Amino acid sequence: MNFYDNMLPEGFSAEAKLALPIVIEAGRLAHRYFQAWHEPHEQSEQALPVEWKDAEEPVTEADRAVSELCIARLGERFAADVVLSEERPDDGARLLADRYWLVDPIDGTKDFIAGRAGYAVMLGLVAHGQPVLGLVYQPAAERLWIAQQGLGAFELLDHEPPRRITVSATSTMSEARLVSSASTREELVRRVRDRAGIRDELQVGSVGVKLCLIAAGARDLYMNPAGRCKLWDTAAPEIILREAGGQLTDLRGGALRYSDRELGHHHGLVASNGHLHSEALRLLEPFLVGR
């Protein structure tokens, strides 16, 4: 597969054209690790050691290798920009910069470790406190989503022209197609799902893939009450979802912030096709008392 055969739609910036091969190269590196670990014909004698940053955040050699590749390539092409990766300490330089890059080298590491395809490499460009360019590449599906502010959101597949994506028109909550975590079952999500009468649920690891599935009209709603997501989990897919017509807020409807010192979205996430957003927030409200 060669994404370079697919030209970006007219109007995309030099940043987008330079970032595209970086995310593809990084995704292919991640997938080589994945294949060597999980695919029988490629299997190595020893699995990657898994370390834990805390009780919920695993990290592997693959995360670090992909992170270093992204940092190096972005540094070569955007020498004046600040780059922050999940696998590097935040030195605060981004707070003084008009724009900076956020790297999530393997979003959905738990899926990566478990041998599931729901992981992605993500690059997001933040300018003046808002995501303006996002790339989410899912190597196992050989699928890339990309969006730039004001230019729409697109899905790129091998040997096919870029396809502009838009959210679904679903406006009835009971008909919503929910996407949720493959590794963590949230009781609050179950309760809201049952109260809303939602019966269609797909489980995927990567937050970025979840949001892009909503952007592409394949899913309609995602709720994450845990408050563990970070800036690099959302920057790239947020601009993709917004350019496709969807919405992303915290559990109370507040906008996500990228210009504060805090790295985490501690008030949770709600992503939707936009038509369901107000109703999702209303259904969540009774469960948020005291949170």
How does this structure look, described?
By secondary structure, the protein is of the alpha+beta class. It has two domains: 163 residues, 2-Layer Sandwich (Fructose-1,6-Bisphosphatase, Chain A, domain 1), CATH 3.30.540.10; 116 residues, 3-Layer(aba) Sandwich (D-Maltodextrin-Binding Protein, domain 2), CATH 3.40.190. The protein has seven helices and 14 strands. The strands form four sheets. The chain has a seven-stranded mixed beta sheet, sandwiched between helices. A three-stranded antiparallel beta sheet has the order 12-14-13, with helices on both faces. A hairpin with a 3-residue loop joins strand 7 and strand 8. The termini are far apart.
| Principal-axes shape call | globular
Could you give a short account of the major beta sheet? 7 strands, mixed
Percentage of residues in strands: 25-35%
What's the helix-strand series? HEEHEEHEEEEEEHEHEHEEH
What's the N-to-C terminus distance?
A: 47 Å
The name CATH uses for the topology of the largest domain is Fructose-1,6-Bisphosphatase, Chain A, domain 1
Structural class: alpha+beta
Q: What's the structural domain tally?
A: 2
State the strand order across the main sheet.
3-4-5-6-7-8-9
Percent helix among the residues?
Answer: 25-40%
Tell me, rounded to a whole number, the average pLDDT. Answer: 92
Total E-strand runs: 14
CATH superfamily of the largest domain: Fructose-1,6-Bisphosphatase, subunit A, domain 1
- How many helices? 7
> Mind telling me the CATH class of the largest domain?
Alpha Beta
Radius of gyration: 18 Å
Give the CATH architecture of the largest domain: 2-Layer Sandwich
| Low-confidence sequence ranges | none
